[in-house]
Amino acid sequence: MLPAALALAADIAANTAPVSVAVAKRLLWDGMDKSVADMSALERRLFPKVTALPDAREGIAAFIEKRPPAWSGSVSDDLPA
Question: pLDDT tens for residues 11-65?
Fold first, then answer.
């Protein structure tokens, strides 16, 4: 089980934009005590902000071009409020 978990973590670290991972983690933690309706509202507010970042386009381009992504976003600078 541990090798599979480590492989998944390595894939996420290499192929997922840091800001997207940070937003997903925040949603997971915030969702522990919120209703589905509250979380849906929060996701609807954050999704357009994350998908408007340059890393969203970079992720798609890297996938289509079959190359590793070159992330430019920073969790400290680009994380939506």
Answer: 999 999 999 999 999 999 999 999 999 999 999 999 999 999 999 999 999 999 9
* Domain containing residue 13: 2-69
Q: Is residue 63 part of a domain?
A: yes
Q: Specify the 3-state DSSP secondary structure of 55.
A: helix
Counted domains in the chain: 1
d(CA 61, CA 14): 15
Contact assessment for residue 68 and residue 37, using Cβ atoms and an 8 Å cutoff: no
Residue 57 lies in a domain: yes
